[in-house]
Design a protein that fits this description.
heterodimer, A: 820 residues, alpha+beta, 11-stranded mixed β-sheet, 8-stranded antiparallel β-sheet, 28 helices, 30 strands, 49% helix, B: 322 residues, alpha/beta, 14 helices
Chain lengths: 820, 322
């Protein structure tokens, strides 16, 4: 009902009552008329019966059947009468008349079986007429006229057939009349409703147009009364709305101009290049940075397709690369490239760029173009490439370093296991290098190594991998080469080395080499196995008289075990199994006033062998060489946290609780599951992460830069802190400080130790300290073993100091954990 | 049309009584107030008319007379108290008369409105009987001679007279036959055996008769039979000579009867005589003294017969009967 239009409601209001009334009246009329028909039929029949009853009274008494027949024949012509019978009081038939046309029908069928018949039985009674003036108080003894009430009966059988036909006709007429009345009324009501609704419909249409925003829509104020008022008010409203919209539009345009101006200024000021295109990839805007980077001015670039201005090649493969701006627009994807691109500038020179492209959408989220943002990544890219190169190459010889060599060896082992490839590891240990180094100096030694590297490289194929593994050790992975051919290669190398004469000044020096050959096979399960085998073979070659080649056999290991390094390998393995490592701590002392006095320790590892206690410097090389550092690190972490938990550190207030630095190796950081291990142990110990600081050497961090950064971010988020250890000893690049999220800089102990005697070292330490402070990092000086140093460091502004001059080593188990 | 005759005759009588009473006053006789107890059988209109006429006529008595009216029911309950200080008893109707007959009183008694046939049977059973000379039964039925004379005066051409009788009217039939012989009139009798055969028998007889003389036999003429009888006679063009005003109104052509007022006059006449001449003997049975001749002119006209004017008939009848 509520959804009905006014017109429909008006029609309903006018038609419904009228229709109901008309129907009721018609029904009442039909009902009345039907009753009248019934009554008329009844009256007809009863009148006939009465008339016959009265008229036939005498003839019944006189039994004048002829007269009775004449009487009822006259009445039998009535169409509603089927049959008339007159019987005497004993129901003996005196006369009967059947209406014309029904005689045969009723002769065949029993009249009374008809359903639409009406039978009236009227007694024929003599009409009482008083003839005595005086009361007959005493009845005569002889009552001659003991006349019954009825002397006979008139039985009239009528039919309601015609009455029903009349009723049907009446009903039909009534319905037709009602229908005509309703139709006429409906037409009239429709006309009236139309007259009433038309102005309202015009108003509704106009209001709808106004609602759609056509505020210039006006109504003709031609109607009177309330509708005229409504038209006038709606026009006023539309005028007011139009004014408000115009004002709002002006304000919006003003705001839009300001916003656009801001955005434009921002874009013009951005250091990143910004290019926008339409949906076809045609440039519509180019900011000054983009103009500078591409070499094209905005005027030159706008109107050209992006790929004509923004020409790129893959930074690694140098394959031409059509920038997929249309794909970005079509699919709404955000474009970022894993591989860097090189942008070919207008002049033909190239820069490495980082880029992002995004679809620009309108309010209806329809793509209307794309925006491309890019910046010059050349210098950073070069730095990253240099770092990667440095992390995997030996500075001196330019060869692959040990770490990269081990990676390649690992890959080769996987190829053996998975592809049935045949590779041979060639381990070369120079025999006379130490003499050159001792007699001619390090510079000569370095030059010798460079020359030998060059020499060996000339004896191997391009696919073979040559690396400098240590001071005078080289390794070659002879790829896809059977053992005998590999031996030939090794012999070729050995021969070249044998004939090589190093000339340094007036000195001439020959060098030889001991070469161990190991054919990689499926029995070698780990890198350590292969390295031990190669070491063993080389050792045997040396033992057999140097300057020779020894092909590895299984018996070589027994000989090799006697070698010192291998002894440490097995000691480490034994200590890990028997838990003979011990944890010590050394306190890190604040050197400056105002620094929180909470105890701060570095956890240090010691290996006990009988009464001897060895520091990591003794076995660290072996541990790293044979990839044992991850196990050692895990042992240290697990036992440190367990000890701290035993000492209920987790129950102390965090602000006053002591803090502990734990060293991590680069090998550990390179392991995929190391994150989970540390995280799990931290949770198990319930020690607050803020009490733990991990120390990572810059070398370790750089060797696994991506994972190192991820690890540091993860645990910094948990509350742990990080210290960059031995800073200044290795690559000495301050660039790392911007990359690695560290909190402390631990200045290399060698620099600290020498700063009292070397102004250069002093300056380096001072520079490191200043730069660190500039970067809001806390500095810690290591190896402070001289009391004079303490004052110098304090005067320099170094925050903390660590060394025997400040605090001795203490067994961690006996350490008192109370705050000082 | 029904006219009460003879008015002048009645006034004459009243004048005579008044003269007698005037004489009494003249001679200085002072008569005490008398009392009439009227017992009416019921409160039917006919008795009410009779009582009303009595009330009006009692004022005309020379001796101041009080009329006390009781119904038969009231009288039967308080018979003794009702009869105290009554000078005249008048019983209107059979039942009242029976009650009055059972009262052993020395006061004059009038028993009015008694059918002749019934009276005869009651006389036989000693129920209604007047033999003391101070008791008189005033019969309801017109004398036979009066009827026959009137019939002959009115319709002298209608000589074949049909009389329908039943065992009930047998006593009247004998008297009728005797008087008709005396008057030289021939009567045909139709004796009805059963009610079912009444109309059948009648229709067979009517074609052979000129007029039907109705006797006051309720077993033949009653409210149930009247209409068929009238229709039958009308059908055959035979007029009916009736005995009551109701019968004439119903369709009889003419008749003779006495109205309740006329009976009241007759009673007042008898009491006036008694008051004037104490000890006068009343006849034990009296015919209706006054009568009315009635003609249904519509029926007469329909039947196409001609009857002299009522006044003429009355005058002639009075002359003949004197």
């Amino acid at each position: 009902m509520t959804n009905m239009t006014i017109k429909a409601k008006a029609l309903l209001i006018s038609l419904l009552p009228l229709t109901i009334t008309t129907c009721l009246l018609s029904a009442g009329y039909i009902w009345q008329r039907a009753n009248d028909i019934d009554a008329s039929l009844n009256n007809t029949l009863h009148n006939a019966a009465n008339m016959i009853s009265s008229a036939g009274e005498f003839d019944v008494l006189s039994k004048n059947q002829r007269a009775l027949q004449q009487l009822i024949d006259a009445y039998a012509t009535e169409k509603n009468i089927v049959r008339i019978q007159i019987v005497d009081k004993k129901e003996h038939l005196l006369a009967q008349s059947i209406s014309v046309g029904t005689e045969k029908h009723y002769a065949k069928n029993n009249v009374t079986q008809e359903s639409n018949l009406i039978i009236i039985k009227k007694p024929i009674s003599p009409v009482a007429i008083e003839v005595q003036d005086y009361e007959q108080e005493v009845k005569p003894a002889f009552n001659l006229t003991n006349t019954p009430e009825s002397i006979g009966f008139v039985i009239i059988t009528g039919t309601s057939r015609f009455a029903q036909q009349q009723k049907l006709l009446l009903l039909f007429q009534g319905l037709v009349f009602t229908l005509i009345a309703v139709i006429i009324t409906a037409i009239f009501a429709y006309y009236l409703a139309q007259t009433l609704i038309s102005p309202l419909a015009n108003i509704a249409n106009s209001v709808a147009k106004i609602a759609e925003g056509q505020l210039n829509q006006r109504l003709s104020e031609d109607a009177g009364g309330e509708i005229g008022q409504l038209q006038k008010h709606i026009n006023n409203m539309a005028t007011a709305l139009e004014r408000a919209r115009n004002l709002e539009r002006k304000q919006a345009e003003h705001l839009l101009f300001i916003e656009k101006s801001k955005a434009l200024t921002t874009l013009e000021s951005l250091g990143e290049g910004v290019i926008t295109t339409d949906t076809l990839g045609v440039i519509t805007y180019l900011n000054p940075a983009a103009a500078k980077l591409t070499g094209f001015t905005a005027e030159e670039a706008i109107g050209n397709h992006l790929n004509d201005i923004f020409r790129t090649v893959n930074a690694h493969t140098r394959q031409a690369f059509d920038y997929p701006i249309l794909s970005c627009i079509e699919f709404g994807t955000v474009i970022r490239h894993d591989a860097l691109l090189r942008l070919i500038r207008r002049e033909g020179d190239e820069i490495v760029i980082r880029d992002t492209a995004t679809t620009i959408r309108d309010q209806q989220q329809n793509a209307i173009g794309a925006v491309l943002i890019f910046d010059d990544f050349t210098s950073l890219h070069a730095m990253a490439e240099r770092l990667v190169y440095q992390a995997s190459h030996d500075d001196l010889t330019g060869l692959v370093n040990r770490r990269e060599f081990e990676n390649q060896l690992e890959i080769s082992l996987q190829e053996i296991h998975q592809l049935n490839a045949v590779h041979v590891l060639c381990y070369i240990d120079l025999d006379q290098f130490k003499i050159v180094n001792d007699t001619c100096g390090h510079v000569a030694g370095d030059e010798l190594l460079r020359q030998l590297a060059h020499l060996i490289k000339g004896k191997i194929r391009s696919q073979d991998i040559l690396a400098r593994l240590g001071g005078d050790e080289f390794g070659v992975i002879i790829k896809d080469c059977p053992g005998d051919k590999a031996k030939a290669v090794a012999e070729n190398i050995l021969e070249a080395l044998s004939h090589f004469v190093f000339i340094w000044g007036d000195r001439r020096q020959q060098v030889g080499a001991s070469i161990g050959l190991v054919t990689l096979n499926t029995t070698q399960l780990s890198l350590t196995d292969v390295l031990i085998a190669a070491d063993s073979a080389c050792y045997v070659a040396k033992e057999q008289g140097r300057n020779r080649i020894h092909i590895y056999t299984s018996t070589d290991n027994e000989l090799f075990k006697r070698r010192g390094e291998m002894q440490w390998f097995y000691r480490i393995k034994e200590s890990l199994q028997n838990k003979t490592f011990e944890l010590y701590v050394q306190r890190i002392i604040p050197l400056q006033a105002g620094i929180p006095k909470a105890n701060h320790y570095e956890v240090l590892l010691r290996l006990r062998n009988g009464d001897n206690l060895y520091s990591p410097e003794v076995f660290l090389t072996t541990a790293e060489r044979y990839n044992l550092m991850p196990q050692i690190d895990r042992w240290v972490i697990e036992n440190t946290l367990a000890t701290l938990r035993d000492k209920a550190i987790h129950e102390q207030p965090v602000d006053n609780a002591p803090r502990f630095n734990i060293n991590l190796s680069g090998q550990s950081l390179g392991q995929e599951d190391f994150h989970e291990f540390v995280h799990e142990k931290l949770i198990q110990s319930k020690i607050s992460p803020s009490l733990i600081t991990f120390e990572i050497t810059e070398t370790a961090a750089i060797s696994n830069l991506t994972r190192a950064i991820a690890f540091m971010k993860t645990f910094r988020d948990l509350g742990c802190q990080f210290a960059l250890d031995d800073f200044g000893s290795g690559l000495s690049s301050f660039g790392y400080l911007t990359t690695l999220p560290v909190d402390y800089i631990k200045i290399d102990g060698n620099l600290i130790s020498a700063m009292m005697t070397s102004p250069i070292n002093y300056s380096i330490v001072d520079a490191i300290n200043r730069i660190a402070h500039q970067m809001h990092l806390i500095t810690i000086a290591e190896y402070v073993e001289d009391k004079m140093l303490i004052e110098r460091l304090r005067a320099m502004g170094v925050d903390y100091g660590q060394g025997f001059a400040l605090a001795p080593l203490e067994p961690m188990t006996t350490l008192s954990m109370t705050s000082r | 049309m029904a006219i009460a005759f003879p008015q002048f005759f009645r006034h004459h009588c009243k004048t005579t009584s008044g003269l007698i009473l005037s004489l009494c006053f003249v001679t200085g006789t002072v008569l005490a107030q008398q009392r009439i107890l009227l017992i009416q059988s019921s409160t039917e209109p006919v008795y009410a008319q009779f009582t009303q006429a009595m009330r009006e006529q009692v004022k005309s008595l020379k001796i101041q007379t009080e009329l006390q009216v009781v119904t038969a029911d009231e009288f039967s309950i308080n018979t003794s108290s009702s009869a105290i200080k009554v000078d005249y008893f008048i019983a209107a109707g059979v039942r009242a008369s029976q009650l009055l007959a059972g009262l052993s009183s020395k006061k004059p008694q009038l028993m009015a409105l008694i059918p002749a046939s019934l009276n005869e049977s009651h006389i036989k059973t000693n129920k209604i009987r007047c033999q003391t000379g101070i008791c008189s039964v005033i019969l309801l039925d017109q004398p036979i001679e009066r009827q026959l004379q009137l019939l002959r005066l009115a319709l002298p051409q209608h000589k074949k007279i049909l009389v329908i009788n039943s065992p009930h009217s047998t006593p009247m039939t004998a008297q009728l036959t005797r008087i008709s012989h005396q008057l030289g009139m021939k009567l045909n009798y139709l004796k009805i055996i059963s009610d079912e055969s009444l109309i059948g028998q009648l229709t067979q007889e009517l074609p052979d008769n000129d007029i039907v003389l109705a006797l006051p036999d309720p077993s033949i003429y009653n409210r149930n039979t009247a209409r068929p009888i009238l229709l039958a006679t009308y059908k055959y063009g035979v007029p009916i000579f009736a005995y009551s005003q109701s019968f004439i109104d119903a369709g009889a052509s003419l008749g003779i009867y006495t109205t309740p007022e006329q009976f009241a006059w007759q009673c007042i006449d008898l009491i006036a005589e008694s008051q004037a001449q104490p000890g006068i003997h009343w006849p034990p049975e009296a015919q209706p003294k006054y009568y009315t001749i009635g003609i249904n002119s519509a029926v007469v006209e329909s039947l196409g017969i001609k009857i002299p004017a009522v006044q003429y008939l009355h005058d002639q009848l009075e002359r003949i009967l004197q």
